[in-house]
Structure formats: structure tokens, C-alpha cells
UniProtKB/TrEMBL annotation:
InterPro entries per the UniProt record, alphabetical: SPOR-like_dom, SPOR-like_sf
Entry superkingdom: Bacteria
One Pfam match: SPOR
Descriptive protein name: SPOR domain-containing protein
UniProt domain SPOR: residue ranges: 11-41
Organism: Streptomyces longisporus
Amino acid sequence: MNDGTITLPWLVIRQDDNGNRYRVGRYATRAEAQKIADSLDDRGHKQLYWVERIGQNGQNGSAAAN
């Protein structure tokens, strides 16, 4: 992209005990997103955290479960 925008295609998603899903943040690299998901997961709460990539058309792509 040459229009000066920053591409943040990697999402960290949290799912709570009731099945509700929330976007925690967007990141430039999968490694950065995974580091955040791992640190949140290490807190020992019952929430589930994972990393997803946003597809080219703005849709969530394949999920990589944590």
C-alpha cells in the first residue's frame, strides 16, 4: 500500500464464558498478535484467545486457535 495507511491484518479475538466474541486488537504481524494472545491467555481466566487474519476483502480469514 502506498497511500500512507498502516495495514494491520492480524486480529486477537477473545471469547467469554457466554460465547460472546470481542476484538481485542489489530496487529501488523502474526507474531505480534500471537504474543498478545499468549500473554492474555497466561492470566488463567476462562476466556479463550486466538489470532485471525483479515482477508483481502475485509472478511476474517482462517483462524489460528491459541
